Design the sequence.
């Protein structure tokens, strides 16, 4: 289907203004909005002004807009010698705008007629719609597993689904460590001075730890009435040495192992030291600082490309989960799942109301801005998978500057563990209930403190919750025979815990940015 609308106009100053307004309306109707619309209009207006000036504002031009197969194209023709206004625009910023907005300018000359065209690409389907569709398709295929022959399921799992899951996980673990490393260093370099870093660092780390304990405390308290406990003297295994070793291991033995093993705490530890040293040297390292900024931009782009595979990973992982466990798994372990969902939702609601009231912004707007990140967390159970989306949203939707954002957010995905702790607490409550272990008031405080500390040391990737599971069960005298059901619960709750965590991280970063007067409230309140 092709639609066209042609207008002839004199390219004097009034004509340029009129034509620019027509193009602006055309781009708006083509799906370009907000800051993208402003940037696109400025870029196109600059090109037309270059053309008009070349002809002393006396040239007539024919302007046509077309729509064919969903692609919108603007064509402007003018008579005379060959003249390409695009090639005469020397402002790199303008040409960057043209390319980043997805516009495709083109010029040609034939039979004494110049033709300048600008094409707007077909609007892509929103990423969250694709992710939801992938998850729904996986659920449908997972349910269909009941009627698919076992040999066919084995072949599909072994040759299609498992390789997809493995490849995505490997790519993500390979580049996520590099991204976190460079993002933290880049953020530190952007802070300005060592004294400012010291001030920001203490506040940020202290607040993340405090909010983790408060959030986990709320979740643990909310869930207590829904579990049955035997009150009396309790027995726990002493795992203080294991906890101590976990904290000591933050210091890596060499600079390569953290990246090879994906140990995010060690990676952040090295980034903090290197970034602080670069900041301390100051003016002696401008080339190095610029190089790190560029490397960080490259790593962000690489992770974006990797995360474009998310729909395939979601489809594969959910299908495999349902084929392995079946829907019946939910009937026997519903209680910790339901109450983790409820308590984490309550925690998110509290955070949402606080930010909404404090900054006078509609909660609906905040939910819309949080939703893409929440969806990625819900479908991948990986904070790192949502890192690129989260950093971009913080800067362009929540008004957090990139220098502060790049430093704070990577720390947050490690240290802000309120919902992760809450999920583990639900597992411990459930296993304590079915095993009939005795509890008292001290036991509840021990659960809160120990699990919150352990949770901060777990890698923020899918399956990372399994690493601390053995230590937690052992600490609270839960028999090893429960490890299988605990592992299944941990993997399932990981989706809930991660989605709540990454969504609340947006709100927590907003509060911290405002504390240091970095927050752009106009962007935060914008629709």
Sequence:
């Amino acid at each position: 289907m092709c639609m066209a609308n042609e207008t002839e106009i004199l390219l004097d100053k009034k004509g340029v203004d009129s034509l620019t307004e027509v193009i602006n309306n055309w781009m708006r109707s083509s799906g370009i909005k907000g800051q993208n619309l402003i940037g696109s209009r400025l870029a196109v207006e600059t090109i037309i002004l270059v053309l008009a000036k070349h002809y002393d504002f006396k040239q007539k031009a024919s302007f046509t807009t077309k729509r064919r197969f969903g692609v919108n194209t603007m064509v402007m023709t003018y008579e005379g010698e060959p003249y390409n206004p695009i090639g005469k625009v020397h402002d790199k910023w303008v040409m960057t705008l043209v390319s980043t907005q997805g516009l495709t300018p083109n010029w040609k000359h034939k039979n004494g007629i110049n033709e300048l065209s600008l094409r707007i690409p077909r609007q892509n389907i929103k990423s969250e719609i694709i992710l939801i569709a992938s998850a729904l398709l996986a659920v449908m295929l997972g349910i269909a597993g009941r009627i698919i022959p076992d040999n066919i399921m084995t072949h599909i799992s072994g040759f299609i689904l498992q390789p997809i899951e493995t490849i995505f996980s490997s790519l993500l673990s390979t580049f996520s460590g590099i991204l976190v490393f460079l993002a933290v260093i880049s953020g530190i370099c952007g802070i300005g001075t060592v004294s400012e870093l010291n001030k920001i660092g203490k506040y940020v780390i202290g607040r993340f730890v405090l909010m983790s304990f408060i959030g986990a405390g709320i979740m643990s308290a909310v869930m207590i009435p829904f579990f049955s406990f035997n009150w009396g003297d309790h027995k726990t295994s002493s795992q203080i040495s294991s906890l101590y070793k976990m904290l000591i291991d933050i210091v890596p033995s060499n600079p390569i192992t953290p990246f090879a093993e994906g140990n995010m705490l060690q990676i952040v530890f090295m980034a903090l030291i290197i970034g602080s040293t670069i900041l301390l040297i100051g003016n002696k390292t401008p080339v190095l600082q610029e190089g790190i900024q560029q490397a960080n931009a490259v790593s962000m782009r690489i992770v974006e490309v990797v995360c474009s595979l998310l729909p395939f990973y979601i489809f594969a992982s959910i299908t495999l989960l349902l084929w392995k466990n079946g829907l019946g798994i939910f009937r026997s372990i519903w209680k910790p799942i339901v109450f983790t969902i409820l308590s984490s939702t309550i925690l998110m609601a509290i955070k949402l109301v606080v930010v909404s009231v404090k900054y006078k912004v509609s909660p609906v707007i905040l939910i819309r801005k949080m939703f893409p990140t929440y969806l990625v967390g819900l479908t991948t159970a990986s904070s790192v998978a949502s890192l690129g989306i989260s950093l971009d949203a913080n800067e362009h939707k929540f008004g957090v500057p990139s220098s502060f954002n790049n430093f704070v957010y990577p720390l947050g995905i490690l240290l802000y563990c309120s919902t992760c702790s809450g999920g583990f607490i639900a597992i411990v409550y459930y296993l304590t209930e079915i095993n009939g272990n005795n509890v008292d008031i001290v036991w509840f405080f021990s659960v809160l403190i120990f699990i919150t500390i352990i949770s901060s040391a777990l890698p923020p990737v899918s399956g990372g919750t399994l690493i601390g599971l053995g230590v937690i069960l052992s600490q609270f005298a839960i028999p090893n025979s429960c490890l299988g059901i605990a592992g299944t619960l941990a993997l399932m709750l990981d989706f809930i815990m991660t989605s709540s965590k990454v969504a609340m991280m947006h709100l927590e970063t907003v509060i911290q940015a405002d504390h240091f007067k970095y927050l752009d409230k106009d962007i935060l309140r914008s629709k």
Remarks:
- The chain has 21 helices and seven strands.
